[in-house]
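ok new one. same drill as before - structure tokens go in, u give me an amino acid for every spot. 681 of them this time. try not to just spam alanines like last time pls lmao
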């Protein structure tokens, strides 16, 4: 019971105490029937002879009517048999490596102390790595900077409700910023690898054995009590624990202290063997990502191709890591995502399986036709050949057009007009091919052996080209996200490169004004307790995905612009709240107003990567001084330098260094290793 409820139970009003009593009686009662996701019961005799069974009407699975805890009391063994998609990703990656490089990687023989692999963990670039890719975990990894497999095992066990509170201490002790306390010198062999912090069930068993003289069997009882999350059972063994410790010469105070530590620990105890298995698996995946990045990302995207949110995240990760993701190609795409090495370049071709509304059966029919009849020479050739297939549907042709699968069959100068014609006249084009097929079946002969003379064809001229925004909406409809980023590139060409700052770097800075633009990927309107509307928006600025809350006091002002898939200009101020960065949205406008925006500040981020040399930052700033004093960039924008790293510092430059927008200066900034980003405001 949480402390607040415990206080009410003991000291609350009569009604409060009664409500808590009623809730306690209801807590844990069975409300509905559910089946364990991976629980398997093992028995020496047919289950029907010893326990009641139940057949799920939806899945047809036979399940027990007793819960897991009662089954063990009946003498049965319950095991959790987990099937992880990550194992499929590993297997697929290894196959791709063998196909591309003609080598077989044995993950059981890779070194477990590879510096490059641990550098990947330390960077926080762990997208796709089992158990280590959540935002909270990556932040801790960047602080921890793991150097051995024991660090990964401990982090896997600690990053859970309860033990998570010990992560800051674990990190501080690893880096020598906090004293390691193992409670008694006798416990150092047990606790030294976790810097004096009790992390695993096995450590509790060892302490119980050493401190109180418990047998391994008795210590295992303690472990089982903790694993079943029954702290009240631990109270029953308190006297034996304390008396056993005193008999073995340990102070009573130490025995009580350790026992009190174990009471809350029983709510979240994690066995090291479980955590080690997960950590080894994560390390193997990180190894593949480090040394065979292309194959790994293609396998990862394939495994997640039915999840558009995951695809969006992993495609962005791949692009940020220097991997080009090419749109679907009717002549190159397979069902899965395909990695390619060609002329010194490497890239991934988007798979048919990642296109919404395109079935696997028809996708494989396309591949079969391509293999037997050769590549498609045009959109019309595709229709002529695939329309005869019994799996063909008009909607399949539409989603392939929207996905850009035919783009490489048309000259770039006429592409947008052709796509517009295909989409607007698709029914007429299909009907034309149907008529041609009817004439051919009747044995009709056409002059000059062509089917175009006597049969009217749809116009090959379209009155209106697709716009870049149309392309954007088409991609959203078939991918669930914006793959090509053409609109971002078009805006940069029109308005300049006004910002280039990652969310990770931005959130290391203190309070600061932010200007950016992008599109609203999702807008959810909710009603607060005061019956006023507010909005939760997911915002994509081409660099990162942000989550913003537009509270009711500003919602009315901005609501006309808070529409999913709208491109907007956004101004905000970052703030810190419990070490988390929150964004106070100050202004939202349509993207069309970008030319009218007025700016007064230019922000430059610099990484502090030499903690032992205080003059490092000033030398780097001196390197920029030559550019800042050039007449061609002289202007009125104030310059702010944000140094991020061990030291987080903001420096405002003298007004004599005021500048204006300059493409050469932006190019210079982005070429400097110590500059991690910039933006204007």
């Amino acid at each position: 019971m949480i402390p607040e409820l415990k206080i009410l139970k003991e000291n609350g009003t009569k009604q409060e105490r009664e409500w808590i009593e009623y809730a306690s009686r209801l807590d844990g009662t069975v409300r509905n029937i559910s089946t364990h996701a991976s629980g398997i019961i093992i028995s020496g005799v047919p289950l029907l002879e010893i326990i009641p069974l139940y057949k799920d009407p939806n899945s047809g699975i036979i399940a027990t009517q007793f819960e897991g805890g009662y089954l063990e009391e009946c003498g049965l063994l319950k095991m959790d048999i987990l099937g992880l998609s990550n194992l499929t990703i590993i297997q697929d990656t290894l196959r791709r490596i063998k196909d591309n490089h003609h080598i077989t990687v044995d993950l059981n023989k890779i070194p477990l102390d590879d510096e490059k692999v641990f550098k990947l963990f330390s960077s926080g670039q762990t997208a796709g790595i089992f158990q280590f890719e959540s935002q909270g975990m990556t932040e801790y990894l960047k602080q921890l900077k793991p150097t051995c497999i024991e660090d990964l095992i401990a982090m896997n066990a600690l990053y859970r409700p309860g033990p998570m509170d010990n992560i800051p201490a674990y990190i501080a002790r690893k880096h020598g910023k906090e004293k390691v306390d193992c409670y008694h010198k006798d416990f150092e062999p047990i606790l030294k690898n976790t810097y004096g912090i009790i992390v695993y069930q096995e450590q509790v068993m060892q302490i119980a054995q050493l401190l109180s003289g418990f047998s391994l069997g008795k210590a295992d009882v303690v472990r089982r009590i903790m694993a079943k999350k029954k702290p009240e059972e631990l109270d029953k063994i308190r006297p034996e624990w304390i008396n056993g410790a005193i008999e073995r010469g340990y102070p009573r105070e130490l025995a009580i202290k350790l026992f009190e530590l174990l009471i809350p620990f029983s709510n979240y105890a994690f066995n090291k063997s479980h955590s080690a298995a997960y950590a080894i698996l994560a390390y193997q995946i990180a190894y593949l990502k480090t040394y065979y990045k292309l194959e790994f990302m293609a396998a990862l995207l394939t495994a997640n191709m039915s999840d558009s949110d995951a695809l969006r995240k992993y495609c962005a990760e791949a692009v940020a890591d220097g991997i080009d993701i090419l749109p679907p190609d009717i002549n190159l795409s397979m069902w899965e995502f395909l990695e390619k090495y060609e002329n010194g370049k490497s890239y991934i071709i988007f798979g048919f399986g990642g296109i919404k509304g395109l079935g696997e059966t028809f996708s494989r029919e396309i591949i079969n036709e391509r293999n037997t009849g050769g590549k498609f020479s045009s959109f019309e050739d595709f229709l002529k050949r695939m329309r005869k297939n019994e799996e063909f549907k008009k909607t399949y042709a539409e989603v392939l057009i929207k996905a850009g699968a035919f783009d490489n069959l048309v000259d770039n100068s006429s592409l947008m007009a052709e796509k517009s014609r295909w989409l607007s006249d698709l029914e007429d084009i299909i009907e034309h091919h149907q008529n041609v097929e009817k004439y051919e079946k009747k044995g009709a002969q056409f002059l000059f052996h062509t089917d175009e003379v006597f049969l009217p064809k749809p116009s090959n001229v379209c009155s209106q080209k697709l716009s870049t925004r149309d392309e954007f909406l088409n991609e959203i409809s078939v991918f669930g996200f914006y793959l090509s980023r053409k609109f971002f590139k078009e805006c940069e060409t029109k308005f300049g490169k006004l910002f280039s700052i990652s969310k990770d770097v931005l959130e290391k800075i203190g309070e600061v004004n932010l200007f950016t633009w992008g599109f609203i990927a999702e807008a959810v309107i909710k009603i607060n307790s005061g019956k006023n509307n507010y909005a939760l928006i997911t915002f994509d600025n081409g660099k990162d995905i942000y989550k913003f809350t537009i509270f009711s006091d500003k919602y009315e002002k901005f609501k006309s612009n808070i529409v999913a898939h709208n491109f907007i200009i956004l101004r905000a101020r970052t703030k810190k709240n419990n070490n988390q960065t929150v964004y106070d949205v100050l202004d939202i406008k349509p993207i069309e107003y970008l030319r009218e925006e007025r700016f007064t500040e230019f922000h430059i981020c610099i990484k502090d990567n030499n903690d032992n040399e205080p003059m490092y930052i000033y030398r780097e700033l001196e390197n920029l001084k030559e550019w800042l004093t050039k007449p061609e960039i002289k202007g009125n924008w104030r310059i702010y330098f944000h140094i991020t790293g061990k030291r987080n510092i903001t420096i405002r430059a003298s007004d004599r260094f005021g500048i204006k927008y300059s493409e050469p200066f932006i190019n210079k900034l982005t070429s400097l290793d110590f500059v991690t980003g910039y933006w204007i405001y």
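Residues 111-278 form one domain. and btw The CA atoms of residues 93 and 296 lie 5 Å apart.
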